[in-house]
Amino acid sequence: MSQTSSATPRALQPFHLAFPVTSLENARAFYGDLLGCAEGRSSPEWVDFDFFGHQLVAHLSPEEAGHKSVNQVDGDNVPVRHFGVVLTMDDWHALAEKLRAAGTTFIIEPHIRFKGEVGEQATMFFLDPCGNALEFKAFADISRLFAK
User: Fold this and answer.
1) What CA–CA distance (Å, rounded) separates 97 from 87?
2) What is the rounded CA–CA span in Å between residue 119 and residue 121?
3) Is pLDDT above 80 for 2?
4) N or C: lower Cβ tally within 10 Å for the chain?
5) Tens digits of residue pLDDT in 23-54
């Protein structure tokens, strides 16, 4: 399988991520109701979500859910295990407000990281009800997503 150079435009393919949750009911409420992710197939042990065009699969595995370690990134304790989506700046601000209105506790408040640097980005971190860390970010200039 060949990898296309980052300089060559290509169609974005959806990713697939399977992750552990402590409760499918809580996962449905959070990913489906709060984040607005449509539910796909499911079983008594797992449920698919359309996570901004990507396939996210919550698997019931309470002993594996949650995050345990952090690393320092621009002065923040960033959960090592996390996932999320890069949004447009407008969508990022709208999601931050929606989460605030829903009473979400942020583990890293919405803010701009790497101000004035190549990697400047809006970021926020919060936990789902099963303890999994999510990061949503945005760039004023998306072409800088992979800039060094």
Assistant:
1) 14
2) 6
3) no
4) N
5) 999 999 999 999 999 999 999 999 999 999 99
Q: Is 0.85 surpassed by the pTM of this model?
A: yes
Block residue for tokens 């996390």: 82
Asked whether the domain spanning 66-148 has the same topology as the one spanning 13-64, the reply is: yes
Q: In the CATH scheme, what architecture does the domain 66-148 have?
A: Roll (3.10)
- Angstrom distances, CA of residue 32 to CA of 46, 55, 73, 121, 131: 14, 13, 30, 26, 16
Strands 133-138 and 54-60, bridge-based pairing: unpaired
The CA radius of gyration of the chain, in Å to the nearest whole number, is 16
The answer, yes or no, to whether residue 8 has pLDDT greater than 80, is no
Structure confidence by residue, pLDDT tens digits, 55-106:
999 999 999 998 889 999 988 899 899 999 999 999 999 999 999 999 999 9
List the chain domain ranges.
13-64, 66-148
Paired sense of beta strands 70-73 and 133-138, if any: unpaired
Tokens representing residue 46 in the block: 């797992």
